[in-house]
Design goal:
This protein is an all-alpha fold. The chain contains 13 helices and 4 strands. Helices cover 39% and strands 3% of the residues. Helix 7 crosses helix 8, helix 8 runs parallel beside helix 11 and helix 9 crosses helix 13.
Length: 404
């Protein structure tokens, strides 16, 4: 039949020329693909030509504009994206790294560091180094906590035997509250001694009950008589212990030594100057003199060679503990005191010996209201744990008895 077409009567035959294909670029063989129609923003828009539409030849690919729409010019590259980047439905396909673009800079740094650390930890060097770093951080944290907490806990004052507590020690450290109703000591007279307490300014209260002896501690006779009835401690010894506490309040203000500790040491050492059948005279001197066994290393004693050429203990070979507070001659020569202001430092005098013991216990800036300082002071007097425990128990007992 060829190109013969049936025509309706009265209808004009129309001849339509087919669009010729766009010429390929120079040097490119084969037909050139025809671009797809552009998507319009208005769904109801038609494809009818507009007055300012391009010529047919341009749409057919003969002009530069068609070349640009076909993808050969820079205009198409700038205004339209390839069809493969726009899937059906008009939604943009999300790339795997789209979240990285929207992530804040700080978070990206943190995530990157975490990933790098994780990757490093899986390597041999990381597996070896990480445990050491963790241990170092743990030790540093422990040291910091210890530096802050331990000093505050150690230096916190707590009542001990020196304050006549009513409870027993736990693990060697006394606990409990201060003894209520403890007997108060009257102040000492002015110029009580010529040695450590010459600057005392307190005025005594109450009459002197033992006149004629000249002892500064006689101002405490009334108090000593009352406490002696409750505790069984001789009045002369109690005067010496109480007076020493008053003197140390002026000469060692931070020591806070109580007479109960001195009385406990005096009891454990010599039963308040009554060991070996001795007694305390009204002037405080024990008669006869109390001299302990030789310190020659036998019978559980220490080996202490002679230090005074036998002047105090009458032995030029070995030292002996002497007096009601049982000082070693070498120690007495360094800490001996004159507690009764008679111009003589006599280890056999309870006034002198009690004041020397108080000075010795307060050495090194100790605060005997702190448990560690109290135990350290008593153990420095006699480095035997059973001895220190006996002193504590007796001081505790005297504290309870004195306030009943």
């Amino acid at each position: 039949m060829g190109d013969t077409r049936r025509v309706v009567d009265g209808e004009e035959r129309m001849t339509v020329r087919p669009l010729r294909p766009a010429a390929p670029p120079d040097g490119e063989a084969g037909p050139r693909p025809v671009p797809k129609p552009r998507r319009t923003a208005d769904p109801g828009a038609t494809n009818a030509p507009t007055p300012d539409a391009e010529p047919a030849d341009a749409r057919a690919g003969t002009g530069t504009t068609a070349d640009a729409r076909a993808g050969t010019g820079t205009t198409a590259d700038a205004t339209a994206k390839p069809a493969k980047d726009e899937p059906a439905g008009g939604r943009r396909r999300r790339t795997p790294f789209a979240h990285a673009v929207r992530m804040p800079a700080t978070r990206r740094v943190v995530v990157g560091a975490a990933r790098a650390t994780h990757a490093w930890s899986r390597r041999p060097s990381g597996r070896t180094t990480l445990p050491g770093l963790f241990l170092l951080v743990l030790v540093a944290a422990t040291a910091t906590a210890g530096a802050l907490l331990v000093p505050a806990a150690i230096r916190k004052p707590q009542p001990v035997a020196v304050d006549a507590t009513a409870s027993a020690p736990v693990n060697g450290v006394p606990e409990g509250g201060a003894a209520p109703g403890a007997t108060a000591l009257p102040p000492v007279p002015p110029g009580a001694t010529g040695d450590p307490a010459a600057t005392l300014t307190a005025v005594p209260t109450g009459p002197v009950d033992v006149p004629g002896t000249g002892r500064p501690s006689d101002a405490l006779a009334g108090w000593a008589q009352q406490v002696s009835q409750r505790t069984g401690i001789p009045v002369v010894a109690l005067q010496a212990y109480g007076y020493t506490e008053r003197v140390l309040e002026q000469t060692h203000r931070s020591c806070q030594l109580s007479w109960t500790t001195l009385a406990a040491i005096g009891y454990v050492e010599s039963r308040h100057g009554s060991a070996n059948g001795a007694t305390l005279r009204p002037d405080g001197v024990s008669a006869p003199e109390i001299i302990g066994p030789p310190l020659n290393g036998q019978g559980g004693t220490s080996r202490v060679p002679d230090s005074d050429q036998g002047q105090l203990d009458r032995d030029s070979v070995w030292d002996h503990a002497i007096g009601p507070m049982q000082f070693i001659p070498g120690t007495w020569q360094s800490v001996g005191a004159d507690g009764d202001n008679d111009g003589v430092r006599n280890p056999h005098d309870i006034d002198d010996a009690a004041l020397a013991a108080g000075d010795y216990l307060c050495q090194g800036g100790r605060n005997l209201s702190i448990p560690g300082d109290w135990w350290g002071a008593v153990l420095s007097y006699n480095d035997v744990r059973r001895y220190a425990q006996d002193v504590f128990d007796k001081a505790n007992e005297y504290g309870r008895q004195s306030r009943t």
